[in-house]
Every structure is written in C-alpha cells, then in structure tokens.
Amino acid sequence: MKKIVVLAVAIAATACSALGRSAFQNPVVTLRDVRVLGLGTTGGQLEVQLGVHNPNNYRLDATRLTYRVFVGDTIGVANGALDTQTTVQAGDSTIVRIPVSFTYAGLGAAATQLLRTGAVTYRVAGDVTVGSVVGNFTVPYSASGQFNTMAR
Fold it and tell me: What angle do CA 84, 77, 28 make, to 5 degrees?
C-alpha cells in the first residue's frame, strides 16, 4: 500500500510540473538602448536597457540575469550577471537597466566601425532566470542594435 501512495504522489508531482511548464509563456526580452555612461583612461561604463514583457496571467520575479555584449555579432567586449530581483506583473512590461564595464582592449573592432561609419552594431545575449507560481525557468534572450553617434 505504501508503494502505491508513493507512486501516486510521484505521478501527481510529475503531472503538476508538466502542466506548469506547458502553462508558462517565455518572457519577451528586447534590447531598448545602450548608453555610454562614462569613459576613462582604461575603459568605460555602459548602461544596457532591456525591455522585459510578461505574457503570462501571473507575475514573474526575475532573480538573475546574465549578459554578454558583442560588437558586431561575435567580438565580445563585456559579460557578467545581475542578481537584483525584478518583478514584472501579469501582462505588463518593465525596463531592466544593466551596468556594464568594459576595457578599451576589447573595443578595437568598435573603434574601427565607429571611425569608418559613425556607428557600431552590437548584440546583447544571455539568459534570465524567473520564478513564478508554476516554477523557476531560465530563458535565453538575444537582441541587437546600432549605436549611432550621428543620431545622438
């Protein structure tokens, strides 16, 4: 009898987990802006702004966000993680601001693009870990844009 109860509990837990995952919709992460906050003798500070939309009918609590910043599509200039909790209400959106430090050593390709065209194409990629009423999920994101000195 004990084995049947344990088996029934295991099946119920597996079913609830599967139902929760099928009811979960990934948050939509978009790149909003990249701003230069400061420049120094060895590097600088950027602020990467990501828009996070929650398509679910329950709130999401983002507990960790990792990021990688690339010039063009492949040249890495910065990476890191943000462990600040951010809440996105059901059906709502919010802006997440990520401070990113960089060194000039990683920006040779950006400088070349900037001098040649007045603009730098970039990509931000990573993943966001969210907690919800149906469990915790880690969702990848990737977005790209262009920093144009003529438009600033």
Answer: 45
What pLDDT digit, counting tens, does each position of 25-66 carry? 888 888 788 888 998 888 888 888 888 899 999 998 988 989
Burial class (CB in 10 A: 0-12, 13-18, 19+), 114: middle
- d(Cα 53, Cα 2) in Å, to the nearest integer? 45
Residue with tokens 């049947």: 4
Q: What is the DSSP letter of 106?
A: G
Q: Which two tokens stand for residue 128?
A: 């966001």
Tokens of 5: 């109860």
Per the CB < 8 A criterion, the answer to whether 64 and 81 are in contact is yes
CA–CA distance, 150 with 152 (Å, rounded to integer): 6
Identify the residue whose tokens are 């079913």: 15
Q: What angle do CA 90, 95, 98 make, to 5 degrees?
A: 130
Confirm if 20 and 135 have CB atoms less than 8 A apart.
yes
